[in-house]
Write a structure and sequence with these properties.
Distance between the termini: 74 Å
Radius of gyration: 24 Å
Largest sheet: 2 strands, antiparallel
Number of strands: 2
Order of helices and strands: HHHHEEH
Number of domains: 2
Length: 121
């Protein structure tokens, strides 16, 4: 069971009632599991049933709920679209790293050649 602070309750009410955010956005912002947010909305009498929670009945909800991971200070929502974006960024970053490693290796070989040249004189 998760303990909720007064500040978290106030923020939850604001995000849900005033900003009209859906469940997944709120979970991400509050770094809480969906079932915790749903239960808190029920406990605070903001909704009566979990099916009443905005975003719960979304066709993608059950799939996306399984893909939410909370890691200490951050929550990552990985819907299929976000997975594709993340994968592309990951590949791009991996290619940049590989290019940098290749450049470093080439610089290393250049320095080694120069050192070999000067050490034989």
């Amino acid at each position: 069971m998760t303990t909720w602070t007064n500040d978290e309750d106030l923020l939850l009410v604001k995000l849900y009632n005033e900003e009209k955010l859906d469940l997944l956005k709120i979970c991400s912002l509050l770094k809480k599991k969906c079932k915790e947010v749903i239960q808190r909305l029920i406990d605070l009498k903001i909704v009566e049933h979990k099916k009443d929670v905005r975003g719960y009945s979304n066709n993608n909800f059950l799939t996306e709920e399984k893909n939410i991971s909370v890691n200490n200070n951050s929550a990552i929502i990985t819907s299929n679209n976000e997975k594709e974006i993340f994968t592309k960024k990951l590949r791009d970053n991996a290619n940049i790293i590989l290019d940098n490693v290749e450049n470093i290796y080439n610089i290393y070989n250049d320095i080694k050649s120069l050192l070999d040249k000067f050490s034989t004189k």
